Amino acid sequence: MAVVTTRQLLESGVHFGHQTRRWNPKMKRFIFAERNGIYIIDLQLSLRYIDKAYHFVKSTVARGGQVLFVGTKKQAQEAIADQATRVGMPYVNQRWLGGMLTNFHTVTKRIQRLKELEGMDFADVPGSGLTKKELLQLEREKNKLAKTLGGIRDMARTPQAVWIVDTKKEHLAVDEARKLNIPIVGILDTNCDPDEVDYAVPGNDDAIRSVALLTRIIADAVADGLIERSAGRGGEQAVEAEPMPDWERELLGAEGEAAEAAPAEEAPVAEAAAEESPAAAEETPAAAEEAPEADAEAAVEAPAAESTDAN
């Protein structure tokens, strides 16, 4: 089944590029034609590259990876936040902070600070031990951190892939990802450099509908990867530790108690038998002593009988 159809791409305006005077010659192979001073992107190539990006993202997430959604331009902010939240992935839809990937250790400290501020009750002035002005300043700090870092507050490590809308605008994110060798999946408009992206998706990165469609496709790939990952883990857990019904647990418990009680009852009997065995051993020598006495009596009686016969 195709990830997306040509009709859907056409309806979303994915095929519209930039003006002919604003283009990157490296994008020539992705251009189908020129109409009214605007380049038209070859949607057949777009379909092919979308499939590659889709399967890469799916396999990355299925192996336990994480995809960071990046798009700070107005046309992409809503789609980035909605789709990333839908699949539980981190995102950046406001200003990209320098070092967000290359200096992630410092960023985690700011995220921790954000979580501390979120745990404060700014309405409880008497209980906080702070003045209203101090609480107001802390609340402003929280709002500022939430705006820039709220999308990555649960990102514990650098991502295994990055989805970028408009690689030209998000050049800082592209540079940091390339320094860390993080694969980049991004929309390539006719003014972008395809050499900066590992998995290119030729398309319109300015139209809201185009950005929303392509971002949704990547989010669907993430969702499929999560399903595949959970299916694999679920199978392993089912084999390792299948939950036991209550009735079976009670039955096994009763059998275990009975099994423990049986040896306990047999133990006194075994001890009694052990006590009787020495007595039997003592009786055996007595019987052995009686046997020679019987033989002696028989020997005495035998000569007496012989003398009687002789008379």
Plain-language structure description:
The chain is α/β, with parallel strands linked by helices and about 300 residues long. The protein has two domains: about 5-95 and about 160-240, 3-Layer(aba) Sandwich (Rossmann fold), CATH 3.40.50.10490; about 100-155. It is about 60% helix and about 10% strand. The chain is built from nine helices and eight strands. A five-stranded parallel beta sheet has the order 5-4-6-7-8, with helices on both faces. The chain has a three-stranded antiparallel beta sheet with strand order 1-3-2. Strand 2 and strand 3 (about 40) form a beta hairpin. Helix 2 packs parallel to helix 8, helix 3 (about 75-85) runs parallel beside helix 8 (about 210-240) and helix 4 (about 105-120) packs across helix 6. It is elongated, with a radius of gyration of 42 Å. The termini are far apart.
